[in-house]
Structure to design on (683 residues):
């Protein structure tokens, strides 16, 4: 098991280099002139200026030279200071957020995590529960309903569903609201009265024993939680159901029944753990998706997470920000996959003991 | 005569499929005496597994359904029992082992846990006692270092070892009947022989009755007292091993015997193999199911399916023709 984890960890840097190469490579599809535009706010008036920019940033150098400059930065001959260099944590300045990309991530990522944290449980538990129920009652009412739901859920666009929720729960009923927090909460944070231990608002609220703040945070998150659960349930139900049906046909399930086990034990102790293997893989994917920022949902509900930041950057052709966020999401993806693999190994002895 | 421990009468099981109703078992009647071993023989797809799974109500439903029959176990009809009652029988008084040891154990549960389950259910013992008993059982079926191997998972055992585990597990609650569904088919020949020997030894020690399913008449003869031959969801011949080998009667049985390599053939008995395909079980059979492949077939065979009838000492056959004379019975 330890060996297995070490092997997976050793792979992480390799994957990261791959991710940066791909992301940087995509940018190279643009010509030097087009790329030079990314470094300035207003497009230069004459060609001389453009050439100056290209030379200054080495935009006409070879791919690997540019890649290295991007990784390592450039020492300014005048001041002797290093400029750029993602290896040194400098991902550039985000025009859209008016702050360095790193600060943008630091500010937004906790919000995305906060949302993911409260989405994962309802998403997984209800999705898996319904999938198992459907499979065990194949072709009965609950199964038909689950299948119907799964089709609607996968084909109904997120933003339409999100807008409907917004209209109903916010505009009409006024129970919940978009955004992250009410003004009085942000004042509380600004004045330092709410200590930020984790920067996750719900968790900090609980740690400060401010249940009013917690409730306020929840009222802002419930609509995105509903929307995200709604979309993800559809896939979880489908995958869990088909995996469970497959498992219920296996010989060891007959063996379990032939032992005299109760049907509940057959399902919960024998069938379900086996049926969970593909579900874990998918859950990993969904959690990665949640952490990488859910662009549409965050945008619809004006929720200030990584996804919203990406959408804002994309809308403004803010390539520096997009690059930085893409690398961030890529890293999250790699780390989450690692965690999924480890969880997988825990439930499947064939992987663990291989 | 020994007490009848199992008495199956007119068992019929069907499957509803998109292509129509599959008539997998069409009125099977078999009996089993205490301590007796019955070999259930027939080619793949003739309904051996389905008939035995039906007795324990382990048929997946839907699509499967037991549409008729009774199965008396010690006088009580298994097919009419409550779910709770049949669970007491399963794994406790009647236990079963399966064809493919690679798939019949749960891959994500260790052997110790899987072994303990039926004992905790039926013997009312503590987990610690179940563990000790598991070790003894595994040792008795020839698994070395059994104590250490309890925490291993199925994939860490070879095919033959897994089948030994299945046997140990099936016998853990001292069942009166062991149903072995082709337990050696998936194993290679030397291991097959070891498993057969193991079961014969355990039968001497424990005295349970056995229904041994196989498509190999030779294997059946090496372990069984009596053999029932199945074809197309029917039992078509039934006799003691000695009687069946001395006077095989049904054309299908003759074909089976003749395709056995190790049997010394008598000069007068012409060698022939069974031509044609096993029947498709989609229609209710009105004709003799073997008619399309039978060299003795005649008009009557197409019109009426012969019943299983006694033709002598503990010898029953379902055929219109006396194959020793070639004339109609
Ligand atoms: N789940 C099922 N659905 C449809 N048909 C089935 C099912 N299980 C078994 N059958 C059919 O029942 C017949 C008997 O199968 P089985 O008892 O497994 O044969 P065998 O004698 O090889 O054990 C076969 O024709 C098979 O196609
Ligand atoms: S009844 Fe007729 S067809 Fe059937 S086995 Fe006998 S002779 Fe052949
Ligand atoms: Mg079979």
């Amino acid at each position: 098991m330890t060996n297995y984890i070490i092997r997976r960890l050793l792979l992480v840097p390799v994957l990261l280099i791959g991710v940066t190469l791909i992301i940087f490579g995509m940018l190279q599809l643009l010509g030097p002139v087009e790329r030079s535009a990314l470094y300035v706010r207003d497009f230069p008036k004459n060609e001389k200026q453009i050439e100056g920019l290209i030379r200054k940033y080495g935009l006409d150098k070879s791919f690997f030279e540019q890649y290295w400059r991007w990784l390592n930065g450039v020492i300014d001959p005048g001041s002797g200071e290093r400029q750029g260099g993602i290896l040194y944590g400098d991902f550039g300045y985000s025009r859209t957020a008016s702050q360095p990309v790193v600060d943008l991530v630091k500010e937004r990522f906790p919000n995305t995590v906060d949302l993911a944290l409260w989405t994962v449980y309802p998403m997984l538990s209800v999705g898996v529960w319904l999938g198992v129920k459907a499979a065990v009652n194949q072709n009965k009412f609950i199964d038909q309903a689950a299948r119907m739901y799964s089709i609607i859920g996968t084909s109904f666009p997120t933003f339409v569903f999100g807008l409907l929720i917004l209209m109903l729960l916010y505009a009409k009923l006024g129970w919940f609201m978009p955004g992250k927090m009410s003004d009085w909460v942000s004042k509380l944070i600004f004045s330092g009265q709410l200590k930020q231990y984790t920067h996750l608002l719900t968790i900090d609220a609980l740690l400060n024993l401010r249940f009013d703040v917690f409730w306020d945070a929840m009222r802002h998150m419930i609509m995105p939680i509903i929307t995200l659960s709604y979309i993800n349930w559809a896939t979880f139900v489908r995958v869990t159901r088909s995996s469970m049906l497959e498992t219920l046909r296996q010989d060891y399930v007959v063996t379990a029944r032939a032992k005299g086990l109760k049907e509940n034990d057959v399902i919960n102790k024998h069938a379900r753990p086996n049926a969970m293997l593909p579900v874990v893989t998918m859950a990993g994917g969904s959690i990665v998706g949640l952490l990488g920022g859910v662009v549409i949902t965050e945008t619809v509900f004006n929720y200030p997470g990584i996804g919203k930041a990406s959408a804002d950057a994309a809308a403004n052709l803010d390539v520096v920000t997009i690059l930085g966020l893409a690398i961030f999401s890529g890293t999250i993806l790699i780390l989450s996959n690692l965690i999924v693999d480890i969880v997988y190994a825990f439930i499947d002895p064939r992987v663990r003991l291989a | 005569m020994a007490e009848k421990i199992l008495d199956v009468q007119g068992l019929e099981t069907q499957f509803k499929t998109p292509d129509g109703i599959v008539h997998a078992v069409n009125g099977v009647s078999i009996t089993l005496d205490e301590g007796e071993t019955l070999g259930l023989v027939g080619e793949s797809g003739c309904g051996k597994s389905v008939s035995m799974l039906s007795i324990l109500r382990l048929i997946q439903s839907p699509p499967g359904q037991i549409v008729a029959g009774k199965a008396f176990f010690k006088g009580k009809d298994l097919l009419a029992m409550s779910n709770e009652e049949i669970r007491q029988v399963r794994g406790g008084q009647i236990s079963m082992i399966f064809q493919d040891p690679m798939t019949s154990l749960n891959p994500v549960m260790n052997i110790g846990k899987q072994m303990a389950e039926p004992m905790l259910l039926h013997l009312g013992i503590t987990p610690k006692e179940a563990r000790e008993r598991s070790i003894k059982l595994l040792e008795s079926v020839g698994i070395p270092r059994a104590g250490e191997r309890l925490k291993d998972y199925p994939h860490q055992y070879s095919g033959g070892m897994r089948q030994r585990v299945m046997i140990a597990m099936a016998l853990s609650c001292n069942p009166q009947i062991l149903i072995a569904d082709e337990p050696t088919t998936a194993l290679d020949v030397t291991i097959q022989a070891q498993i057969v020997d193991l079961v014969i030894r355990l039968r001497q020690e424990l005295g349970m009755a056995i229904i041994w399913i196989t498509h190999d008449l030779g294997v059946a003869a090496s372990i069984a007292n009596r053999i029932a031959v199945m074809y197309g969801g029917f039992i078509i011949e039934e006799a003691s091993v000695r009687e069946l080998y001395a006077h095989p009667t049904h054309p299908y049985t003759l074909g089976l015997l003749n395709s056995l390599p190790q049997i010394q053939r008598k000069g007068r008995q012409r060698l022939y193999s069974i031509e044609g395909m096993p029947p498709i079980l989609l229609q209710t059979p009105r004709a003799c199911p073997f008619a399309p492949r039978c060299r003795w077939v005649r008009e009557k065979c197409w019109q009426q399916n012969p019943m299983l009838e006694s033709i002598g000492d503990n010898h029953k056959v379902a055929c219109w023709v006396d194959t020793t004379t070639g004339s109609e019975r």
Notes: Residues 211-248 of chain A form the longest helix (38 residues). Residues 159 and 296 of chain A are 6 Å apart (CA to CA).
